[in-house]
Prior knowledge:
By secondary structure, the chain is an alpha+beta fold. It has helices spanning 14-24, 27-47; strands at 62-68, 75-85, 88-92. It is built from two helices and three strands. A three-stranded antiparallel sheet has the order 1-2-3. The longest helix is centred in the middle third of the chain and has 21 residues, at 27-47. Mean pLDDT is 78; it is low at 1-9.
Amino acid sequence: MMATTAPGLTRGPAWYLNFIRRIASARWFTWLGVHILTRLDKWLYPRFHGRFVSAGPPILPLLFLTTTGRTSGRAWSTPLVYLPDGEDVVIAATN
């Protein structure tokens, strides 16, 4: 199964997009993304102003959802993919 994206939202050369689509379905890449790349993206994204993440230039637009811990009061940020849908925005919050 291959994920599709809205027209005009993907960025980067065709070889790069094909490479990312191919490895994204690999089991090892899924583990790597959950355990390592998400943490790396939290560090890279604000420092490069969204122009660079762990997989290179972002293919889809990202946003950071920041919440405050109930007991700790600490700010927690999570990168999420979003897509425009007319005047609305659809946010993909996956685990």
